[in-house]
Amino acid sequence: MRIRVPRTLWRATFADLAKLITLSTLVLVVVVSLALAIKPLSDGYLSAADALMLMAMLVPPGLAYALPFGAGFGATLVYHRMAADREALAAHAGGISHRALLMPALVAGIVLMGLMVALTQEIIPRFLQSAQRVIAFNAARYIEAEIVKGRAVSFDQMQIFADSCVRSEAPAGSGATDVLTLERFAAIELGKDQEPVTEVTASRAYLWLFPPVDDGNEREDRGGTATGERRNNGMQTGQSRIVMRLENVVAVQQGRGVVGFRDNVNLSWSVPNTFRDSPKYLPASELARLRTKPERMNWMEQRRRALALALAQVDGLKQTQDILNSGSSINLVDMRGEAVVLSGARAVREGESLRLTASGSEPIALKLNREADVGASGNSGARERVSMVLSARAGRLITSLGPDARTPRFSVTVQLERAEARRADAGAQGVSLPGAELEAFEVGELQFASDPANRYMDMSVDAMLAESDANAVGRDGAGIGQMPEPRVASARHEVARKLIDLEKDILSKRHERMAISVSALVMVLTGAIAAMRFMGRRVLGVYLWTFVPALASLVTIGGGSPMVGSFGAPGLILMWSGVVGLGIYTLVMYRGLTRH
After folding, report:
1. Could you tell me if 529 and 582 are in contact, meaning their C-beta atoms sit under 8 angstroms apart?
2. Angle, to 10 degrees, between the axis of helix 59-84 and the axis of helix 103-118?
3. How far apart are CA 82 and CA 89, in angstroms?
4. How large a percentage of the chain has pLDDT more than 90?
5. pLDDT tens-digit profile of 227-247?
6. Phi, psi dihedral angles at 213 (to 5 degrees)
7. CA dist 242 → 97, 178, 245, 277, 296 (Å)
8. Exposure b/e, 461-489, CB count within 10 A at least 16 = b
9. Model-level pTM?
10. Are 388 and 426 in contact (CB under 8 A)?
11. Of 595, 579, 409, 485, nearest in space to 68 by CA
C-alpha cells in the first residue's frame, strides 16, 4: 500500500507558519529598532528624520535576534492550535506520521536558516556601515548636545570641554560637513593609565568635521594613486577627520606646570571607524579578503607602516654607511624639496645613528641652501637663498621615526661639530653668512633622495614579515648574525601578534554567524515539537519550553565569541554547545512525543 503525501496539510501548515512567523518577527524587530534609536533621539543626537532613517537601517541587524525567537513563537502557535483542535491526532490516526506533520516546520526552518546566513554574512554588516554614516554625519549634533549639557566629549585619549557651542554650515568647497565654534575651550590629554598628562585651554576653538574616507572597496592595488595620497596625508580608509584651530592657547603639563603660550594652534586627528575596523561589522566577502590583505584594517595598516619604516631605517643606515665609506656622497632633500649633499665622511654605526668623522685630511662637507643677507661689503640688505657649504671634522647622522608611535614618519637629521660656513661659489661678493664659525650646526626634517621606505611601503604584510626575518638573520646567512635590529624585532612582533588576533577574530565571527543561523532552524523545530508535546497546556506556558533553552543557546553563542577571539579554536566548544544542547533537547522532546 502506497503512503499518500499530505500535500494539502503541508500547504496549509506552511502558509500558517509563514504568516505567523512574519507577524511575530515584524513586531519584535520594530521593538528592537525603536529601542536602539530612542535614546540618541531623546538625547538630541539625532533629528526625527535621522532617527527614522536609523530605525530603518537597524531593521536587518535586529532580525538577527528577532527572527529566531519570532520563528520559534510562530511555530509554537501553529502547532499548538493543530494539537489543541485535535488536527494532529486526526492526522496521526489517518496514517500521517509525526515526521510528516513536522515537515513544514523543517522546511520553514531550512528557509529561515538560509535567510539568516544571507543576513548575517552580507546584509547586516552592510546596513551597520550605512547606519554608521548616519551617526558620523550627526557627530556635530552629538558634540553640540554634550557641550550644552556640560559633559565632556571624548576622542581617543582626549577629552574636550567648553562653556558653549554654536554649530554652523561649513564653507562651500571645504569638504567639511559642519563647523563648531566653542567658547572658553579646554582639552585634557589622558595617558595610558587614564590620568591627565597635558591640559590645554583656549579662549575660542573652531572644529571642522570631515566625513569618513571611503574607497568603496574598489581600489585593491597598493600602488594606486588614491592609496598613495591617503598614506601621505595620514588618513586611512573609513576614518573621519577633525581639524581644530585654537586661539590664545595656554598649555600645562603634569608635573611641569605651564609649558607654553601661543596665539594660534592648529591640530588635526583621525577618528577610527568602528564599523570598518572590526571584523564583526564586515561582510563575509570582505572577511575572506582580510586573510590576504589584513592591512585593510586600519589598526593593522598602522602596524604594517611601522614595520616598513623600521626596515627602511635599517636599510637607510646601512646604505648610507656603505656609500660614505666608499668615498661617495649622500643625497638628501629638505622640507622645501631642495638638495642637501653630505660628502667626505667616514661612518660608524651607533644604534639608530651614524658617527661621522672626516676621511683623511679633507673635512666633512655638507652642501645646502640657506637664506643670507645680500649687501655691499657685508652690509645688511635684502635676503636671498644662497648655496652654502659647511665643513667639520666630526658629526652625526641620525634617523628617526618621530615621537608618536601611532603616526611614525621617517626623517634624517645631520649634526656637525665646530662647523665652518662659506658660500659654495666662493668668488661671490657682498654676501654675509650666518656666522663663519659655528660651535654646532644641525639641519633636520631631511629625507633620502632615494627613500628606502618606498620599497617597503608597497609590500604586503606577508612579504614584509619575510623581509624582517631576513633582516634578523642577515641576507647572506651571516650579516648581522643573531642580533636582530631591536626596532625591527619589536615592530615585527607587533605585526605577527596582531595577525594572530585577526585570525582569531575572523574565526570567531564566521562561526558566530553560522551558529546563529543554525539556531534559527533548531528553534522552529523546538517550538513545533514542544507545542505538540504539551498540547494540554496554555500556549505561553508551552512557549517557555522553547524560549528558555533558545535564550541559553544565544547566550552561549555570545559568550563563546569573545572566547574564540581570545583563545582561538577551543572557544568554539562553548560557542556551539548551546546549539548542540538545544538540538539534543529538541530530540529528547521528539522521542517523548513519538512514545505518546
Report:
1. no
2. 180
3. 9
4. 21
5. 333 343 444 555 677 888 888
6. -80, 125
7. 66, 10, 10, 18, 22
8. beebbebbeebbeeeeeeeeeeebbebbe
9. 0.73
10. no
11. 579
Mean pLDDT of 128-134: 72
Helix (H/G/I), strand (E/B), else coil: 365: strand
* Listed residue (596, 510, 503) closest to 282, CA to CA: 510
User: Which residue in the block uniquely carries the three cell numbers 526552518?
Assistant: 109
The b/e string for 414-427 (b: 16+ C-beta within 10 A; e otherwise) is bbbeebbbebeeee
Please state, as a whole number, how many other Cβ atoms lie within 10 Å of the Cβ of residue 286: 17
Residue 420 · residue 390 · CB < 8 Å:
yes
Residues written for the chain: 596
* pLDDT tens digits, 15-51: 999 999 999 999 888 888 887 777 777 766 666 777 7
Cell of 180: 563648531
Burial per residue of 515-542, b for 16 or more beta-carbon CB atoms within 10 angstroms, e otherwise: bbbbbbbbbbbbbbbbbbbbbebeeeeb
Please state the φ and ψ torsions of residue 293, each to the nearest 5 degrees.
-130, 65
- Whose cell is 546563529? That residue is 516
Angle at 302 between CA 300 and CA 308, to 5 degrees: 100
Is the Cα dihedral 229, 232, 238, 244 positive or negative? negative
Q: Which residues sit opposite 40 in a β-bridge?
A: none
For the record, the C-alpha cell of 257 comes out as: 606646570
- Answer whether 251's CB lies under 8 Å from 424's CB: no
Strand segments, DSSP code E, in 254-361 are 257-271, 330-333, 339-343, 345-350, 353-358
The residue that leads in pLDDT, 44 or 417, is: 417
In whole angstroms, how far apart are CA 239 and each of 157, 206, 244, 274, 299?
A: 16, 20, 16, 9, 11
